[in-house]
Amino acid sequence: MISKEELCAMAREASKNAHVPYSHFHVGAAILAEDGRVYTGCNVENASYGLTICAERNACTTMAAAGRRSIRAVAIYGGGRAGDAAPCGACRQFLLEFVRDLEHTPVYLTGASGEILTTTMAELCPYPFQSFVPDA
C-alpha cells in the first residue's frame, strides 16, 4: 500500500506539469484507485477561464480512461500551506462519482510547507448530491 507521503509526493511532481500562464498557481493531484494504481493530473488553464481543467478532474478522467471506477485516496498539492489548494465545488462533485465510502476515503491536502492536512470526502461534502436509480 502506498503511503500518504508517497501519494502527496506524486501530486507535487504532477504539479510541475501544470499549464498556468494566467494564475501561475500550480496544482497537482494523485488518485489512488481501488486496484492500487495511481493516476496523476495537473491543472491546465485556458484564456477562457471556464474551460480550465483542475488537477483533480484531470487525474480522475485519466483514471476513468484507464477503466478504473473507484477511488481509494486522493492527494492534492498546491500553494504554500496545506489546504491552499482544497478542491473546488466542481471537483468535489466530480470525485463523488468515483468514491464508494465517503466516510473512509482520505483526501490529503499539501503544499510547499510539506505539512499534510488529512480530511475525508464526507468532511469535504457533508451533503453530497448523488443520483439514485429507483427500484425496478
Descriptive tags:
136 residues; 22% strand; alpha+beta; single chain; globular; Cytidine Deaminase, domain 2; 5-stranded mixed sheet
Would you kindly provide a written description of the structure presented here, covering whatever features stand out?
This protein is an alpha+beta fold and 136 residues long. It has 4 helices and 5 strands. The chain starts with a helix and ends in a 12-residue tail after the last helix. A hairpin with a 5-residue loop joins strand 4 and strand 5. Strands 2-1-3-4-5 form a 5-stranded mixed β-sheet. It has one domain: Cytidine Deaminase, domain 2 (3-Layer(aba) Sandwich), CATH 3.40.140.
Give the secondary structure arrangement, pairings included.
Elements: H1 4-15, E1 27-33, E2 38-42, H2 55-65, E3 71-78, H3 89-96, E4 106-110, E5 116-120, H4 121-124
Parallel strand pairs: 3-4
Antiparallel strand pairs: 1-2, 1-3, 4-5
Short summary:
This protein has 136 residues and is an alpha+beta fold.
In total, how many domains does the architecture comprise?
Answer: 1
Overall form: globular
Strand proportion: 15-25%
Q: Write the CATH fold name.
A: Cytidine Deaminase, domain 2
The CATH class, by name, is Alpha Beta
**Main sheet overview:** 5 strands, mixed
Secondary-structure element series = HEEHEHEEH
Strand order of the largest sheet: 2-1-3-4-5
Number of helices: 4
CATH architecture: 3-Layer(aba) Sandwich
Query: Mean pLDDT score, rounded?
Result: 94
**Helical proportion?**
25-40%
